Amino acid sequence: MKKQIRKAETLLEALPFIKTFYGKTVVIKYGGNAMVSDKLKESFAQDVSMMKYIGINPVIVHGGGPQIGKTLDSLGIQSEFVDGQRITNKEMIDVVEMVLGGKVNKEIVSLIDRHGVNPVGISGKDGDLIHAKRHKRVKHSPETDRPEIIDMGLVGEITKVNPKILEVLDQNGFIPVIAPTGKGTEGETLNINADFVAAEIASALKAEKLILMTDTEGVQRKNKKLISELTRKEANKLIKSGVIHGGMLPKVTCCLDALKLGVRKTHIIDGRVKHALLLELLTEEGIGTQIVPG
User: Fold this and answer.
1) Which residues of 199-219 are buried (b: 16+ CB within 10 A; e: fewer)?
2) pLDDT by residue (tens digit) across 170-218?
3) Residue 144 pLDDT > 60, yes or no?
4) How far is CA 134 from CA 122, 124, 250, in A?
5) Could you give the 3-state DSSP secondary structure of residue 292?
6) What are the boundaries of each domain within the chain?
7) Mean pLDDT of the region 282-291
8) Tell me, what's the pLDDT at 251?
9) Could you tell me the CA-to-CA distances from 213 to 2, 30, 174, 226 in Å, in that order?
10) For domain 48-292, is the CATH number 1.10.10.10?
């Protein structure tokens, strides 16, 4: 009987969080190892399904860089990167669209669908969701002491999010699963960083939370110790001092932009942890790093 009582107490611990998030929108960027490991994929699908069953409205934006790279390699197409972003030419964009909008998106939809909820796979081009322009990266060259403009090809920078299609899906009980492509100024497909897509969509929906799933514990201090909570002001200080750098920098920047545009709280969590989403949403301790206004 004691074991059963402990189970009941665990469920009751989640009650105040269920009440807080009931009817609210949570935007999740799904990527990294959580998209590779079969156990973690199933854990993610269970978490998302439970969120929907208890009245939380999840919106999923997924990545797919490794899957794109693998397909390009198999076709003998070489990739070139600038600061972690793949330069995308016309030959590549068809592969990007096929892998993200087809293979990866539909696999995620199938995983979640098995749990009895209603996921719908779309891309940023569907329903006039994401408008973008071609992204040109500025890189400072120490040799010439001048900024160098790098043409990233068909890599996009978001100019507008029209959330109408997401609102319609939500009103009808569906879970949107979004591939991070958008429509360019001439109607062309643009490949967009999934973190930035998630942040912009969370802002457009005025979401309660933005959660970025990563392959790290969260934001760390110089001594590698996890920082469990940061205000916007503290995060900006850590960026200026160089503590937040490398691959973590764009993720924190996404969180700060989302907070500025009306998202209540943002989180960077370790997607390698089983049931990471439920641990973040429904427990007192949470996991990862929470970044809040202030």
Assistant:
1) bbbbbbbebbbbbbbbebbbb
2) 999 999 999 999 999 999 999 999 999 999 999 999 999 999 999 999 9
3) no
4) 21, 15, 18
5) strand
6) 48-292
7) 91
8) 94
9) 35, 6, 22, 15
10) no
